[in-house]
Amino acid sequence: MLLGLAAAALWLATPAESGEPRPAAIGSGRLVVVPVNLAVRAVPEVEPGIEPVWRALLEYFASEAQPVIALDRLDAGALWNEVMVDAKKAGDEKNLYAVYGHFARRVAAQAQFESILFPTLITQAAHVSGRMASWDGVRRPIEIPGQFNETIDTFREGKIWLARHGGTGELAAASLHIAVVSANGDLRYEGRGGLVLLQELTPPENANGREFVTVMRKDAFAAPDQLREGIEAAFRE
Predict the structure, then answer these.
(1) Is 49 part of a structural domain of the chain?
(2) Which residues span the domain enclosing 56?
(3) Residue 149: burial class (beta carbons within 10 Å; 0-12, 13-18, 19+)
(4) d(CA 52, CA 29)
(5) 73-90 vs 96-108: helix crossing angle, rounded to 10
(6) Nearest to residue 227, comparing CAs of 56, 54, 36, 48?
(7) Rounded to whole angstroms, what are the CA distances from 144 to 128, 132, 173, 198, 205?
(8) Total structural domains within the chain
(9) What is the spatial distance between Cα 173 and Cα 196, in angstroms, rounded to a whole number?
């Protein structure tokens, strides 16, 4: 499978912010960025974030001096299928990081680079304390609607307790998992960074009710500043 590497490298025209340090995990050489969730199918809750996070990653690594190679999703998907065939022959199909290594070596046969980045969106539980939710290196404010009487709302296996000071419990959130692999297939770094809250609290339909409801947020990933912060958190060693 031949990749359209030269064309992909022309995607980035916006330089990185002046003076912004390059993450040590990716080294000083050229970086290949693989499409988000190429290897692991995204759950429905985070599917809307695939394109926004992809754009945020390309903007984060944009550099006139050292442009990244951004792989086309169709080409990368076709190559991944070929790599999985090779991995099965080698008995590595159940080891995701071994498959990453196979993929890196196949790309290295077509282009020179130092590191290749595999980004994956995952769901996490954000821990609520007061009016803040925290997970994977980030904190996000939460809105507690209505009056702060002592109420309770069930969320999956956990519970959200609300009182005058705020809340305690868990809300669903999205994080970015990254794996950085060298051109010869060795894992150089992996990390996670919190992106956005997927859920929010809404007041009960019945004005006399005591139970709040957790609902999925609309346009949860329409927050470029939070996406960038999450990317930075994922690379924080």
Answers:
(1) yes
(2) 5-10+26-123+171-234
(3) exposed
(4) 25
(5) 120
(6) 56
(7) 11, 10, 17, 15, 15
(8) 1
(9) 6
Q: Which residues, including other chains, have CB under 8 Å from residue 120's CB and lie 6 or more apart?
A: 36, 37, 39, 40, 176, 177, 178, 179
163 found inside a domain: no
Is the torsion defined by CA of 142, 41, 38, 27 positive or negative? positive
Q: Is residue 65 part of a domain?
A: yes
Rg (CA), the chain: 20
Residue 66 maps to a domain: yes
Contact 116, 178 (CB under 8 A): no
Per-residue pLDDT of the chain (237 residues; tens, 9 = 90+): 555 554 344 344 344 443 457 788 888 889 999 999 999 999 999 999 999 999 999 999 987 677 889 999 999 999 999 999 999 999 998 999 999 999 999 999 999 999 999 999 999 999 988 889 999 999 999 887 655 444 444 434 345 555 555 667 889 999 999 999 999 999 999 999 999 999 998 766 655 545 567 889 999 999 999 999 999 999 997
3 state SS of 109: coil
Cβ proximity of 208 and 234 under 8 Å: no
Query: What's the rounded Cα separation, in Å, for the pair 48 and 174?
Result: 11
Q: Where are the alpha helices (DSSP H) in the chain?
A: 5-8, 50-60, 73-90, 96-108, 224-234
Strand 151-155 with 138-141, pairing: unpaired
Structural tokens at position 40: 């692991």
17 secondary structure, DSSP code: P
Task: State the Cα–Cα distance between residues 164 and 79, nearest whole angstrom.
Answer: 54
